[in-house]
Amino acid sequence: MEFTLIKFIFIFGVLHSFIYLSFALGFSLVFGVAKIPYLSYAGLYTLSAYLMHLLLTKAGIPTIISAISSIGAIGGLSIVIGDYIVKPSMKNPLSIFISTMTVSYIVEEVFRIKMGLTPVALPALRGVITIAGVPVAQQWIAVLIIGAVSSFLVLIYLSKTATGKSIRAVAESWYESMIIGINPYKVFRVTMLIAGLLAGVASISLSPLKAVVPSMGWSPLFVSFAIVILGGMGSIKGTVVASFIYGFVEQFVTWKYGGAFASIVPLALIVLVLIFRPTGLFGEKE
Amino acid sequence: MSQNVLIGVFVVILVIVGAVAYYAGKGATTTVTTTITQEKTVTATQTQFVTVTGTPGPTTSPSPTTTPSPTTITQTVVVTTPVEFKGEVKVGALLPLNLPIGQLMLGAIQMAADEINAKGGVLGYKVIVVPYDTQWQADKAAEGYKYLAQQGVKVVLGVFGSHEALAIMDLLALYQVPVIASGAVSDQLDQMVLKNYDLYKYWFRAYVSATMQAAATWDILAYISKTFNYTRYGWIYEDLPWVIPHAAYGQVRSQQEGMILAAAVGVKTDITSFADAFQKVLSNGSQIIVWQFSGTEDYVFARDYYDMQVPLIALGGGSYAMLDQFYNQTGGKAEGLICISWGFPAPFTPKTMEFYNKFKQTFKTEPIFTTWYAYDSLYIWANAVESAGTFDVEKVIPILEKTVYVGAAGVYEFTQSHSAKLAPDRIYPVFFQWQSGQRVVIWPLNVVAPGTKLLVPKLEGGKRVWVEVPWPPK
Amino acid sequence: MFRQKTVADKVRENLLGIIVLLILALLPMRANDFLLDTLVRTYIFVILAVTLDFFSGTTGYLNLGHSFIFGLSAYLTGILYVYLKIPTEIAILGAGLLGTFGSLALLLPSLRVRGVYFAILSLLYPIIFIGIVTTQPFSLYLGGEGGLRIKQLFLDIARKLPPTERLAFLHNAYYYLSFILMVASFIVLYKLAYNEFGFKLRSIGQDEELSEAAGVNTTNMKIKGFLLSAVFASYAGALYAGMRPPITVDFVNTGSILLPTLTAMIVGGAGTIIGPAIAAFLLTLLYQYLWGLVGLWRTVAYMIILLAFVLIRPQGIFFDIYLRIRRLVDKVIG
């Protein structure tokens, strides 16, 4: 394997890993805390990009403010979904699957009908910089910085603040955390908020690199799902490690064997994990 | 408690942002679907257009009778007299309405229907378009065909996807409703008509087959390569089944033209960087790049073509690269790309620009790709029915087979496999190059404006520059 | 002590069901072709919902690979016809059987895994299957773009009839075939589910270890339960392939096959068999007719309705409604 290829894989591996981490974290938190697959994540991801586009182009609001407002709005929406859709369905955990999924479908369909005629492009940073001889678009650097910063912020929040620690406690066990006096429902709200914010951040930083289309949310959802399984449900450390494993493996396959095989990566990883270590790398048995 | 305040703040942000976006979004692009729910009345006005000087964009509003002045008339004059229809005739539109192209095609068909009705309908019957959403799925397409047949349509238009077409082929002989597709390029369909005429004679395609599509690209590829003495080409393509016939044709034709495939790179639709693809193509000594996508890769491709200063001519096709906003959407990075466009605002026929302007005015967007052929397909059927004097499919089919129809996209003449003939004076694509925001036509040569220049890339001092070459070369 | 149940008693108990069945059986005399066509598709989904519920609704082993069973026998039908030159009618019979054992053989290893992990693993089967079928060289043998083409079921018989009667014959034949298969699978699985067999399955769903300790051979029961679920789902797949060629990956597509089935199971009431049957029936029809009502907004409307169903009664609204109707009918009859 020639050196250039290694350079490509390493650099893009790092970039992709941070991006995957930033949106897998949100998904993982909800999965760990509420024990549910947060299928609305796809819709939040899509909505965030479209929202920013609308604010930017139709309401003429400057880029930074549009971005922050969209992210905040998606955070708020996530809380609303948590309270009005997830909580009521908790009586039958199976049904959460359906109820959260409908949100993503609705978002996709609404935008397909209303704005589907042309793909939308969010503004990206211009220019290319070269890292060790590899041309990398500047937007990628923004992605890296935003992804890394948001991930670090969340991780610090989880390990240093009171609420953060209670999130981890609830993720480990609802029952035991209730015993020590934590209110799981309050924790649930905050978790939903963080998940929404992370979805928005990931979406807005990553979509300038591709086009914004109504079905853009499903792929990140699927990737997050694979990462959480790989890392172990409910384990933050697992999510972090798994994101990097996933990112590097995917980039390795893409650069060496071509893009067509890259979609097999998540499948293969999941299969391997489930065969050899069903609870994931760092997951614990219930 | 402060936590709840924080949460409350976010919810408030959500509400405000949502409201702003909602009101802003109301000004978003008009949806094509609004045209379906039009008047249900049976009477319509018959308008006679009297124009002398060619004006784009005919007026469509009926106005009281005005007498034209004897010599030159510089505006369209509309004479209206109300007309009664004998009844209604239904035509089906089997389309993936979940895709933008499906909605555009439906709009085009409806537009054609409205025009035909304004002139008295078909054989005196008002044309009603009945749509069905296939959602890009083969089994839904089959259901749709049955539904439309059940509704009593006399012809099914649309049928954009090859998999959709293949799903309905075996139903044609059972339901005996003819199909005039504007899409569905699979060569398999042509084979079916040739091998089993009795079963599949109901199938017509007002467009060309996949092999013909590939042939059109190779025509210009061969010409440019001979002009500049290129023998090695690199091929970057979307790794999906529709590309297979292009690959097969390329293998044969490249040998005929004495060209060698230096590198072939298959990519996935949601690719984020072509750096690797360009690297491979360049390092294998390619002298020209051929590219083929059907999704949003066009944007990423254009961006990387510029960012990486790729010093090769890049000729190819993508759904979005041919659109008028593409140049601006890529921030000018599309400069120099040579793109195919099936259906283009260049005066192929007297109807081309008229249709283009009217469509653009009505739908606030260009007619893209098969939208042109969808518009023409209804007219082709209507003309055949008028000639036959009946809706009876057995009488209409022979007329269709002998049809030579001048449409908006070109001239339609059907081959033995019921597909439109590929030729510069029949149905043929345009190749243009993005030059400073303009789509400059460079192929076919009979449509190229005099004084046209081709931009050829060169490396000068480490940067890519564009050299103007008179086109076509003497 | 208890007097024997007379026929009259049996009729009274099942009056509701008998009336519904009679209406559906006599429908072809009145209905137009499109309705019959839609109902064929509806019955197939009822079978899918009932079979999924029979296994997953009771044992809690969420078989997200249900579409794999369906699609496998569909493809087997095609392969039998195209490569072994077996006529469609017989190919369906054969494929149903082969598909059952095929899916069992492949899903058996997954049964060792519990809970959520079984669900995830089973989800992979249709995905991998589609992956194999769509890449070369397999795709070339399995139909490529257009799918595997076979001669439609009963087409030969239809061709012998005068042209005007052909369509009607096919529609009626398909209708009755799928109707009979649906009724058969429903009755068999319903009876078993509310009997000792079902009791054991449900005990696995409640607490597998406890059930094992109480003497239930859980592995044995899981296999049997799965087999029963698979055999009807397989035949449904083979039959559907015979009625609706060409056979494409849409037959295995999780989105179009599994999701409506899973939805019906959840919204109908997992484990009740009849809830999911009703749910599948109504939801499939709803989705089809929504097109006429709201056109392009159909999917959005459908999703909103689904959401409402789940929020109103997460445990399954249709079973609830069914019980209420049942009580009403019982009160009326006395």
Would you kindly provide a written description of the structure presented here, covering whatever features stand out?
The complex is a heterotrimer of chains A (286), B (474) and C (334). With 286 residues, chain A is mostly helical. Chain A has one domain: ABC transporter involved in vitamin B12 uptake, BtuC (Orthogonal Bundle). Helix content of chain A is 74%, strand content 3%. In chain A, strand 1 (128-131) and strand 2 (134-137) form a beta hairpin. Chain A is globular. The model of chain A has no long low-confidence stretch (mean pLDDT 80). Chain B has 474 residues and is α/β, with parallel strands linked by helices. Chain B has two domains: 46-54 and 73-207 and 350-409, Rossmann fold, CATH 3.40.50; 211-341 and 429-470, Rossmann fold (3-Layer(aba) Sandwich). In chain B, the strands form five sheets. In chain B, strands 9-8-10-11-12-15-16 form a seven-stranded mixed β-sheet, sandwiched between helices. Chain C is an all-alpha fold. Chain C has a domain at 30-253. Chain C is globular. The chains are: A mainly alpha (286), B alpha/beta (474), C mainly alpha (334). Chains in contact: A-B, A-C, B-C. At the A-B interface, helix 1, helix 2, helix 3, helix 4 and strand 2 of A face helix 1, helix 2, strand 9, helix 9 and helix 10 of B.
Look at the helices and sheets of chain C and give the structural class: mainly alpha
Strand order across the largest sheet of chain A? 1-2
Sketch the major β-sheet of chain A. 2 strands, antiparallel
Main sheet specs of chain C: none
CATH homologous superfamily classification of chain A: ABC transporter involved in vitamin B12 uptake, BtuC
Largest two-chain interface: A-B, 51 and 54 residues
Dominant shape of chain C = globular
> Got a strand count of chain A?
2
Structural class of chain A: mainly alpha
Total of DSSP H or I helical runs spanning 4+ residues of chain A: 11
